[in-house]
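Our preliminary data section would be incomplete without showing what the modeling component actually yields. Below, a chain of 52 amino acids is followed by its predicted structure, encoded as C-alpha cells that our downstream tools consume directly.
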Amino acid sequence: MHSLLLPQLAALEEAASEASHISPWWYGGFSLFVLVVMLLVTMIMGKGRPHS
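Predicted structure:
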C-alpha cells in the first residue's frame, strides 16, 4: 500500500512547491469564476426554474 501512495505523495508535494508562487487570490478567483459559470449553465439549460 505504501509503495503505491509514496510516489503519488512525492509528485503532489513537488507540484505544490512549484505552484507556491501563485497567490491564493488566484485560486479563489478561479473558484468563483467556475461557480458562476456553472450557475449560468444551470440557469440557461434549466430556463431558470427547477425541473419537475
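The first helix runs from residue 2 to 18. The mean pLDDT is 78. Preliminary results of this kind motivate Aim 1 of the renewal.
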